[in-house]
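@channel sequence for tomorrow's demo:
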Amino acid sequence: MLSTRQRILALALASVGAFAWWLHQDEEALGPEEGDRERRPDYTVDHFSVTTMDESGAPHRHLTAIELRHYADDNSKELETPEVTLCVKTGPPWWLRSETAWISGDNNLIHMQGKVHVDRVAGPTTRPVQMKTRAMLLKRNENYAQTDQPMRITSKADWITSGNGAEAWLKEKLRVKLTGSVRGEMITPRAGQENAPPGTVDIYRPGSDCGPFSR
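structure tokens (generated this afternoon):
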């Protein structure tokens, strides 16, 4: 037969158990409601493609993605396998691609994530350029890109790496600012070849119509 102390202890344990069960039931009841608050796109677009024009009506920017997800709360977008083409006034355009991306509501900032590639083919007066990094912020209206991740830049046999990020101005003449530890190798041209043309003009393959470098 239970003593008075044992009966009080058993009652207390039963009360604690009942309270824990009530809390568990309450969490389960709130679960679906919390789930409904998850951020969800108001619409999606498969095989998205858009081209914007400059003041003269010439192609200026081109963006494609396997999938676009739009969010109404801030007008931002998420992209799967995006490709961005930045046309310049003279010479071949810049072609950027990554695994995923986020675009700000004003469409100017593009956070490219995953394996990021930036390429420009050779032109009559420009060398081919390839850049590789893991993340990049692109200011589309300024043709400006920056990263705090290591970057590797190659141009034919020349190469250079930065250990702590870079800034790049993607215009007719490329300008790059490297930060952190920098290593590289540059091939010095032979005497009499300093002003030699950069090589055969490649056909621009992946983007939209950017003058003579279109598909």
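heads up for whoever presents: The chain is about 15% helix and 40% strand.
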